[in-house]
Solute carrier family 13 member 5
Amino acid sequence: MSVLTVRQKVLSSLRAGWRMKDAVVLFCSPFLLLPLPLVIGTKEAACAYVIILMAVYWCTEVLPLSITALLPTLLFPLMGIMTSKDVCMQYLKDTNMLFVGGLMVAVAVEHWNLHKRIALRVLLIVGVRPALLMLGFMGVTAFLSMWISNTATTAMMVPIVLAVLEQLNGPLDSNGAPQSPASGPALELPPDPQEKSGSMPSLSTLISSDHVALPMESGNGQLELEELSGEAEEKRRMCKGLLLCVCYAASIGGIATLTGTGPNLVLMGQLSQLFPQNGDVINFASWFAFAFPTMILMLMLAWFWLQFVFIGFNLRRTWGCGVVESEKSKAAYDIIREEHGQLGPMRYGELSVLALFVLLVVLWFTRDPRFIDGWATHAFNSKEEFVTDATAALFIAILLFVLPSEPPRYLYFWKSSDAGSKAVHTAAPPLLTWEVTQKKMPWNIVLLLGGGFALAKGSEESGLSLWLGNQMTPLHSIPPWAISIVLCLLIATFTECASNVATATLFLPILASMSQTIGVNPLYVMVPCTLSASFAFMLPVATPPNAIVFSSGYLKVSDMAKTGIVMNILGILCITLAINSWGRSLFDLDTFPAWANTTAAV
């Protein structure tokens, strides 16, 4: 048997083993961890067994994340940690309903293409100069990610980016480089045969016409090829920078609102679960007051970093100072204007969804703005919190299924359509239908949030949270800001390999117990770590926006890793600055709150 044959058999065996790794992890992990509850035999050990098993499944994704989140409904009752009734009650809490209501409004915005109209309008305002174009893409992506899924935002923005890049740089090859006609006959390509008279000229024609004049003006052919190669490299870097700015802005923008990303909702739910007397310290208004400035700061630093790496700070080239707009820039701008024109004027349904969206934001901000009494306080003059942010979200969500998508006629909701020569009147459909909601609503996140709340409750009931907190007593001698930085680094690293919601779910109950033990305001460590869970910039698998941009084929893993590690560092620095400045006064972080002390005492 030849060496080559043996090598092929070994490689084949390794591939087969790799394909079986999911099954090995799925079936072996429960048995390998079984000595933990059997040998120790305490409730704390049994709860730790469930948490570690779920952490393994979440990190390896051998089961869908939402299915793994259902394990507490099976294992907690079997191990005597909680009754099935108590476990199941954790899966539809107030936070879950806030998520459902907010997502229904986001689905309506997406269904009516309102997000696309906003994006294109902003790009028409900022223009197509490289630096301003990147700022425009990042600004609109971050704004949309505050309200709708960062995955949906990225999926919408990437085709727009690619269309603009094609108009600016020409057709792109598989490496993300412009297909520059830099050699031989390619300089004299005829016009595109599919080009119609009166239509926008194709980009291959614009590029070739720009480059044809170069050999006539240069006496050194080798020098010209080097210049063209340098220009192609510059355009390749711009392509990568504009694509990366979209996925990074999607992750950054989500931190600004409670419903923008999953970890924010996990924090809110865990606070109400572990500290029921916290007095709604985290609501939409208070979170926005803290996180929005943090988002703006992080977004600007990301813009400067991406511009430095991929575009440069040549004002004449990137900002267009003193430069007459080129044909390619005009063509790219025309593409954006044409896309915006295809949307047509705003329809009645779009205006209705926009009005409801604005109303929801107003209701969220004015429910309990802290510095004055909100509308919920005046409507329900009671110490009990009858109305929450979830109430406002569900109110608007229900209206989406009630209000018509066309203007009412004669006090009834009608629309007219031509059927032959007769006008047929039928009832107008609502702004949002259940069929559309079912297709676009990520129901798995609801289960994932519920699984996190079940884990937190199980840790509390079993005593595992108290035990973990006692083990961290030596941290009392370390300054809180140093603890916060170390934990942010840990979570930012962990979230590169695991879901950001799963990361927040696993760590936040532990951090809450630790803060109680060392006498630090729980928000001092829980808020920074929640934000860090959303800052996954290095790997394509870290977050869906990264994966969408990477799947375009214009980026390498090394491109994302080298740029992303600096982004992670910038993110941790921004979080540290925010929590130790305006966050300190906003959440009164210098004192250990009574609501945390009371919960610890219980």
